[in-house]
Give the backbone structure.
Amino acid sequence: MVQTGLEVGYRHVDTAQMYDNEAHVGEAIETSDVPREDVFVATKLVNSNLSYDDVIASTEESLERLRLDTLDLMYIHFPRGDYDPEETLPALDELVDRGLTRHIGLSNFTPAYLDEALDVLDHDIYAHQAEMHPLLHQRELRAYAREHGHRFVAHTSLARGEVFDLPLLSEIAEQYGVTEAELTIAWLLSKENVHAIPKSTDPDHLRANFAAQSLSVDDADLERIDSLHEWRQQRVNNPDNPAWKWQVEEN
């Protein structure tokens, strides 16, 4: 799938230590005809690798699995587990200083956790990644990203398939002759400073998702999609899973 994505035109690959696929991603990038310098590679630190020494050591291990000398972006996956801002965040600064990553990212942080990180970090936050889709607009986190000059990356952008069961989305998608997934991606990309990373294990869907970048949706239809949030709000990465429940409670 990574090789197919690169052939289609994707140039951003998002992975994580906990996905247990960094070696496959690295092999695909290394054997692709696309030059390494044209591919933006991001991975994320698992919660058990957030002590100072573990941040450094596990990043070196990720680089080895990915067959890279330098990451483009290293995220903290969750500010949970072994996360200690006074220990974890300086280690991220050290990764940049040593050239192990070009940029620092945070993932699934609340505004309060972002404030704390900004106070501790020496280097800028390049991106913050959180769940976003038509049922969860993340207005506060998007505004925070604009205010502080970092990118907002929308994960779980198809709401784990929930977008296919929304009649309004289906109606609008039919008008444009596209799928609900393509429409959702176009809606996400219409938002200022939002980047989408939809996941797919189907080559045809991968191509369709990429093509959604060029889909132009009328403002009136974008507003209709916005209205979904007014009558139904749903975070799909919650609420019984302890990995996500804290975020719901603190937001």
Summary: The beta strands are 12-14, 40-45, 73-76, 104-107, 125-131, 151-155, 194-196. The chain is about 45% helix and 15% strand. The mean pLDDT is 94. The first helix runs from residue 2 to 8.
